[in-house]
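User: Quick sanity check before I run a bigger batch. Here is a single chain. Can you write out its predicted 3D structure?
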Amino acid sequence: MFTLFKNKNLINLENFESSYILNIKSYTYLNKDKEPLIIERKSKIKLKQIIEGSRIINTYFLTETEENSNDENFNKFFKKLSFLSFITEELKIERSLKGQIRTLLNIDQIEKKWKNWKEKKLYEFLPILKDQENFVTSFEKGLLYLKDNIKNELAYILLFPEIYQFKDYISTAREFTSLYIFDSCLIKGAEIKYKFYISDILQKEFSPKINIHLKSEITNKQELTILLKSLENKYNGITDYKFFEDLFYNIDKSTGKITYAKLELTENISEGHEYKYLIDLYPLETSINSETEKIYKTYKGKDFTLNEWEKLEQKQFDDFVNNKLINKDQDLFNNEK
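Assistant: Done. Predicted structure follows.
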């Protein structure tokens, strides 16, 4: 049974602090006869939210991370640069009450860490001057991206959803988030501009949680069509180009805290020429102790501990996601259905 109250806010916002496991995996297929390049990253993070008047202040803190690939060259690269993650381990982000990312508040702190490392550790890391110059140029471009374009980073799209302006019913006229930009991983120089809209809302009666499914809609289709047409000879089958991005959330509707979340992005030119990016976000497991072993909730005549209840909610959320993926429309030019 579903409960929908017209014009009621989808989610309320309160202060909270929570720890998560963030799993990221990407697959790049460039040849149907070869194995894809796979890159994985598993991180432990802490998120803190504070509501200050007309703004949300979110603090992201990376406590642990590990990267690996099926390509040994990438593994060597990850190992070589892993210690640099401390430079951006803490991000303090300002958002609007709609959830839009406005700015990065602690860029000065990040730049100070980088400057200190550059002065004291760079020579030890790269003794050759030319290598130092190339590395510094590349890394500082990344810092500029972090400052000016943090909104378009896929992990932050998932972690900081722009959904608080929506109501808890789906309007006949679509309502959209602000614009996002994705730099194509398959077509050099191509930009996909898109917005999200709510496709489905699942809210069980008396439940403190809400499930939300958002789909992407491309806004620069005409521009992309012209570009793809000009590249037909370079990429065989490029007229079959597809792009879609889906977000799935299970959220505490009284605070805005994410309980579970998934992001799935696919870019496809033709068979064997595809890019996939997947993110899963889970709360860090709470160890069973005297508190979690107590009866947390009774549901349909059955008693649940906190751990058991969280597992049940996870299963319900996975069922919700899988059901939506069965009939997913993957066509770039027909994803408005």
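The first helix runs from residue 72 to 81.

User: Great, the batch can go ahead then.
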